[in-house]
Specification:
Layout lengths: L1 E3 H7 L6 H10 L3 E7 L7 E12 L2 E10 L5 E6 L9 E5 L14 E3 L2 E3 L2 E2 L16 E2 L9 H5 L7 E6 L10 H12 L12 E5 H4 L1 E4 L5 E10 L8 H9 L7 H13 L3 E5 L7 E6 L5 E3 L5 E3 L5 E7 L5 E6 L3 E2 L11 E9 L1 H11 L4 H6 L8 H16 L2 E4 L2 E3 L9 E4 H8 L5 H10 L3 E4 L5 E5 L10 H12 L20 H15 L3 E2 L5 E2 L1 H5 L9 E2 L10 E2 L4 H13 L5 E11 L14 E11 L16 H15 L3 E5 L6 H11 L6 E11 L2 E9 L1 H6 L6 E7 H7 L15 E10 L4 H9 L6 E10 L8 E10 L8 H19 L2 E2 L2
Parallel strand pairs: 12-23, 13-16, 28-32
Antiparallel strand pairs: 1-11, 2-11, 3-4, 3-6, 4-5, 6-9, 6-10, 7-8, 14-22, 14-23, 14-24, 15-22, 16-19, 17-18, 19-20, 20-21, 25-27, 26-27, 29-31, 30-31, 32-33, 33-37, 34-35, 35-36, 36-37, 38-40, 38-41, 39-40
Length: about 850
Amino acid sequence: MLFSYNWLKEYVATSLTPAELSTRLTMAGVEVEAAREGTPPVKGIVVAEILTVGPHPNADRLKLCQVNTGEGGERSVVCGASNMKEGDRVALAVPGTKLPGGVKIKKSKIRGVVSEGMLCSEVELGIRDTSDGIMILPADAPLGSEFSELTGEGEGGDTMLDIAITPNRADLLSVRGLAREVGAITGDKFTDVEFSVPEGVWYTKEKVSVTIDAPELCRRYAARVVEGVKIGPSPPAVAKRLEAHGIRPINNVVDVTNYVLLEMGQPLHAFDLEKVRDHRITVRAARSGEKMETLDGVTRKLEEGMLLICDGKGEKGKEKPVAIAGIMGGGGSEVSDTTEKVLIESAWFDPVSVRRTSRKLGLATDSSYRFGRGVDIDGVPTALDRAASMIAELAGGKVSRGAVDAYPVKFKPRDIEFRIAGTEALLGTELKPKEVKDILTRLGMDVKASRKKDSLIAVPPSYRVDLERDVDITEEVARVRGYDKVPVTMPTTRLTGSSPAKLFRFRRKVKEILVNAGFFETLNYSFVSPSTFEAGGEGKRSGVTILNPLSEEQSVMRDALLPSLLETLKLNLSRKNEEARIFEFAPVYLPRSAEGGNKGKDLPEERWRVAGLMSGLRLGEGWNVPSEPLDFYDVKGVVERLTDGLGINIRLKDRVRAPSGAEAENEKALFSPYSQLFHPLRSAILKVRGKDAGLFGQLHPDTQKRFDLKGPAFAFEFEAAPLLAAFGGYGRFKPLPRYPESSRDISFIVDDGTAYGEIVRAIRGLGIKVIENIKLFDVYYGGAVPEGSKSMAMRVIYRSPERTLKYSEVEEIHAKVTGEIAGKFNADIRV
């Protein structure tokens, strides 16, 4: 927001330069983004009086004027405008003057007649963008004086401060408010503007009435009337000042309302009184379906509850909206060139209501910007009087006596109790009570004693709507006193290292293992569509629904990870990416039971899970590798790689035999809903420390069909909790073996239904410590092997960490292993 440095100095007598003032404000929390120095005023533009106006002897469209600049300085000037007359005072650019637009004036002949200067319009003077002729100055403008004296620019021009006002500091949205702040920060004297209102003999209440039907949205509405005004352009000083702040001058009445807006931060509105039916103002909420045309020529549809300013009841017995409260006036009641009676509005509107209406209508104005942050409710009549005074001065007319001031909800000062000791504790510095009181007094607060011995009470002024708590008082003391005076102290707390949480280390390790196995991590939304949610189970299922979903496709919290991975795979397949290895480590959300009196009001249960999905060829496409599809043992290998990397001992339980009874209910409780996604005969259960942790294997053909998969896909989904409980963290270093190994091979024939894992567990169950590893290197069917049987070949590696094993020891131990296999599995030992 722009502020004129010269205008500020009219309120506060500061000796600081614009650069110094910018630094002081910024250090006090009022950030000055830039200080733009203005160009010095143009010299050579003087006030002249037109003595005669006549036609140019050689041109029909030109005028020849005789002007006087005082002390006998008469000049002949050729002019193309025709809006001037004898006796008018105008701005004359004498030869040698360089105008703001860069044009240099010189004495010249125009169609055979000498012209000794140029009569300037507002455009040529840099005041307006457009004009209808030369600028007519006030009749009392001093003859021969520099035009810059009328605009108040001073010798060196003006500097515009571009300040970023934070939303909580509504009191700084005016020159007067910023000047108060400067006075508080610097200690320089703040002097309020002095003005008088030339009141007439008749009272405002005789001319207009005000009714507030929505006091919760409009706590105060004041009005005055000025009669006998003459609409015209504003004086150069007013117009120039408005232009400098980015506001286009319109006419002397509207310009006054904008001038007071900038000066006092109070938005005003001027109505043509004769266009307000019954001379009556009613403030009410909009009714459903109402419409009105605003000043910008747009007819806007209003929503029920929007605050409106309406006039009296017309033929149909309804008030007609004449303005949208706090935002913009209506197109039928604006001030025009024929206006003679002006109704001035000054009010307080609810900030929330103004912001909401502005947002819904897509209509942001200077008024809505200030009303939306909160204006000074006690400043409403002051701004009204200031505007009435200026309109009487600039447009003539008589001001009504007193004002109609509807004030249903009066402002009550807020008492904020604070302790100086508490302020010292927060700032970490010692403060003197006199210093604190002085700062708060400079900020416009009333400081009084409290009933508590060590406390004081600060009463903020009505314009400081941001001060509510004791910490706000502490902040005011700190920034006005100076943040640079707050001592810097180093923390005394010792900094100690800490190891990451176990879940963090576990997640990082899981991701590391899967990435090294060729998987890519995916990040999916925790909410899915109802169709994707139901794809994880049979029929309709109840899940955790979102009350305000972004869309129907994201309305249910997922209770399994695999459906999300399947949607990702489906998307990849549609983009011709048929080789996929993806995983996700994320929480799922399960609805809690309504039993126990909570009736489902508890938050859902959050469980961490890890899931992976594989599709395509085992080794991908290539001329040097076989085109082999993935099978069950590929996903089994990934699972074993994962658990081995985590240092977790596992057991695998096949699902060839469909569970029944209690076992089926247990599996359903643990793995629902994602158990339905797996092929019942080509999947297995992962068991950790005797507890079921999850499933892996080939996906069910129905799942493959539901997600449009082109071929078999293999997946796993595990609960993180049992894996985390068995996770020991980082592994310990194990030195390379110092002694040689001894290996023995065993080949035997067993029943085809005998699982290799059962054989390994039987061997491990012997408790022989020197068995280092067991490897299956051959499985054979047919030939000399009877039907219903299979031939298996295993290699058992023996090694002692303490010494070299003797041949006889190895033979003796190996015989026990062979005997265990033969006896427990009825195996026919071949070697």
